[in-house]
Amino acid sequence: MKVLVIGDSCQDMFRYGTCDRISPEAPVPVMKPTRNYGSGGMVINVFENLKALGVDCDIITNDIRPVKTRYVDEISNQMLLRVDENDRIKSLTANEFEAIDFNKYDVVVISDYNKGYLSDVDIKLITEKHSLVFIDTKKKLDSWACGVEFIKINYKEFKENYDWLLNKYIKGNLIVTNGKYGSVLNMNETFSIESEHSVRDLSGAGDTFLAALVVDYIKNNDIRSAIRFANKCAAWVVSQKGVVIVNPDMI
To answer: Looking at domain 2-9+46-67+89-250, does it have CATH number 3.40.50.1860?
Structure first.
């Protein structure tokens, strides 16, 4: 199976340090830097998780990436501040879109953080060119998403799009994630977390869930099996520090 991953990407930076006093100038902690860690984020995180789980995949994303810098207390793992630089992304051009050979791929995965790389029209065209599309999007859902085979969103996004999903989503394959409460398929079938881990960091959990969902669906052609596997992978990832790639040996 060959998978295409498309969407907007960033550079995730984590600056860790120790905080043992409050600034005399303002009621904020003073951080002493200890180490830095960086990795590709957003759609790149989906791509790297797919590769880690053994999938042959290609990625199409923006070359110039915004930087998300998180300042984190080393001991408590509490985030003190996040700074986003150059948050808007240059859009995919018509020529770049036309150059994509969708026939090469068995599955298309859209990871859309709504930073400008993909438009509503782009997503609609992708669903017209390919029959098996998974999407995780921060956009307000509308008619452009009717052709998406599987929509994965979190509970907050589900509430914001409830009316459209209930009345307009033709395909009806909806997966809603809700943290420690697991996931819900098509608004009525709940999948609990089978083995919980202590939560250390939520960064990148949604990307891991999406990647694992696609991988298991490719193998078994069973969305329920895929949700259970995705729950397991996301539960492990949140027990790690920072944005990490899923380790199949730990699942």
So the answer is: no
